[in-house]
Structure formats: structure tokens, C-alpha cells
Amino acid sequence: MLENPPNPSQGDSAVDTEAVAQKQRGIQQQQDRKDSEQSQQSAQQGQAEEQAVQAGLNTQPEPPLPAQHLEKPGLEADMELQPKFMAPGYKGSGKLEGLTALVTGGDSGIGRAVSVLFAREGADVAILYLNEHPDAEETKRCIEAEGRRCILMPGDVKDAAFCRQAVEQTVGEFGKLDILVNNAAFQEHAESLEDITEERFDETLRTNIYGYFHMAKAALPHLKKGACIINTGSVTGLEGSAKLLDYSATKGAIHAFTKSLASNLIEKGIRVNAVAPGPVWTPLNPADKSAQDIQKFGSDTDMKRPAQPEELSPAYVFLASPVCSSYINGIVLPVTGSVGAM
């Protein structure tokens, strides 16, 4: 006799469910065998290093990156591995034809890449920068090579008077202002909150958020319906960063400022959006990290590498162009090299 005879009232259901369970166990056993084989191979051959992801037309640099530490504010001209900003596969189509843009921190890095693509799309560009004159001159040369006009204005965005002067000079030179890109930033890592002095915190806060506030306030009287403001945020403002406490706080503030200003200006027909980059190969980071640490920069993203500036700049064109984004307002667009950043 069977010790556990099937219940006749259940019909064939007991047999059916056991068959399903047996099928699932078979699948599990097959995978268990594969897992065991893979584990043995890894033990014999050693764990292979994960390869960086290349998803674009051009192969971008991968870690290990050059072991180099730059003195602040950091010159792109001094970088052993020059950032890629020209986006040779990007073809202009007049998306910003006849417009005028002002880009803070436009001398190098993301700001330089954005300025060049804006020019390629037909915009004249005014560039604000601190004192990196060789970088600024090179950016101007590249903008003029695209057939557009460029003016350079060195100064400190922490100074409200300078911001007003820069806007007035831009309008005086080009006749108007259509696009403001707030991009200038200060970043310095700290192992502990106790290492951040009030002086350092003030420098980060006043550069990264006061600077955006001053520029937006100075630009607003000149912005007409259809104009836009684009702020550079950061993945650190979305997720935080253990060793960039003050910097992350300012980037989170920038995201909130973006959404709030977007609501404030929407009835004027002025759009305000932000881009939140992940790690990008610019002078900002070798001027922060040690020569040893910079070699691994970007390797903790899903793509296992940092972005190049030319991989960020098309996002700014998209948000600047009324042809592309006239119905987009108050967003923080993550371009982080990882899945799931919000």
C-alpha cells in the first residue's frame, strides 16, 4: 500500500503540481551544475577583470587612467590624458541657430564641450571662467572654428556684481541672451565632516549654489519667452557621496533650485532644467583626487569608466533647443553611466 495515497477528491491536481515542482527542481539542478562549473573555472583561471562598456561610436578611455594630480582650479591643457570634447560624430542641424548662450565654467570640461556643440548648432557663446586663460583661449578658438562668435570673461561667480556685469557684457556684445548654462563648480573631498572647515564649506556653497543664484537673477531681466536655463547638477546630488559631503549638499540644492525656478518662471515661457552627470573626465577631478585614486576614477559605475565631456554635451543641446524640449521643464536628467539613477 502507498503510505500517502493521493486524495481522490483532488482529481489529477496533486499529480500535476508535483510534476511542476519536479520540473522546477530540474531547472534548478541544471543551473546548479553550471554555477559549479563556472566557480571551478574561476578558481583555476582567476577572476577576469570586468571590461568597461563602450556603447558609442568611438572608444573612450578606460581605467587605469593616468596617475596625475592637478593644482586647483586645474588646467585641461596640463592633463596627460586630454578630455574628449569635440564630438566628431555629432552633426549640427541649426537647433540653436541665431541664439546666444552664456556658459559659466565654459573654459574646460563639460562647459567647453557644451560651448562647442552650442556653436555647432548655430549659437554665439559667452564664456565665464575663473583664471584658466589657456583653456579659455582654446575653447574660444574651437567655437570660432565652428563659425560662431565667442567672448571670454574671467571672474568669480561668487561675486554678484561680476555676474551682473558678465550678463550685461554678453547682451551688449550679442544683443540678447537666450540660454544660460550654470556650470562652474568647486569640489574638494574630505574623509570626515570634521575635516570640513567653515571656510571650505562657505567656498563650496557660495561657488556652487550662490553662483547659480546670482547668474540666474542677473540673466532673468534679459530672458524672453522661449529662453531657458540649464543647471549642472550631479549624481552626488541624487545619491550622496561619503567623501563629498559639502559638494553633494550643493548639488542637491541645485536640483531643488532647478525645479522651484522652473515652476516660478513657467508662466513667462522660460524653461529651467538640469543635467546630473556621473563621473566625467575633466580637470575638476584630477584637481581633487590623489594621483593614485584618479587611476580608478569612474570604475565604480555600471559602465566601469568615466564619461568623456562629449558624451554629456548633447544632453545640454537637447534641453537648450526649443525644437527638442519645448515641453520639458523642471527635470533633472541623469547621465551617470549606471542604471537606476533618479
Explain how this protein is built.
It is a single chain. The chain has a domain at 97-335: Rossmann fold. Helix content is 40%, strand content 11%. It has ten helices and seven strands. The protein has helices at residues 13-45, 109-120, 133-145, 160-174, 198-219, 235-239, 245-265, 291-294, 313-320, 322-325, and strands spanning 100-104, 124-129, 150-154, 179-182, 228-232, 271-277, 332-335. Strands 3-2-1-4-5-6-7 form a seven-stranded parallel β-sheet, with helices on both faces. The relative contact order is 0.15. Mean pLDDT is 92; it is low at 8-13.
List keywords for this structure.
342 residues; Rossmann fold; seven-stranded parallel sheet; 10 helices; 11% strand
pLDDT < 50 stretches:
8-13
Largest sheet: 7 strands, parallel
> Order of helices and strands, N to C?
HEHEHEHEHEHHEHHHE
What is the name of the CATH superfamily of one domain? NAD(P)-binding Rossmann-like Domain
CATH topology of one domain, anyone?
Rossmann fold
- Could you give the distance between the termini? 62 Å
Level-2 CATH architecture of one domain: 3-Layer(aba) Sandwich
> Kindly state the mean pLDDT as a whole number?
92
Q: What's the number of helices?
A: 10
Helix content: 40-55%
The number of strands is: 7
Which CATH class of one domain? Alpha Beta
- Find the structural class using helix and strand composition: alpha/beta
For the biggest β-sheet, the strand order reads 3-2-1-4-5-6-7
**Radius of gyration from CA coordinates:** 26 Å
**Tell me, what's the shape?**
globular
**Which strand-content bin applies to the residues?**
5-15%
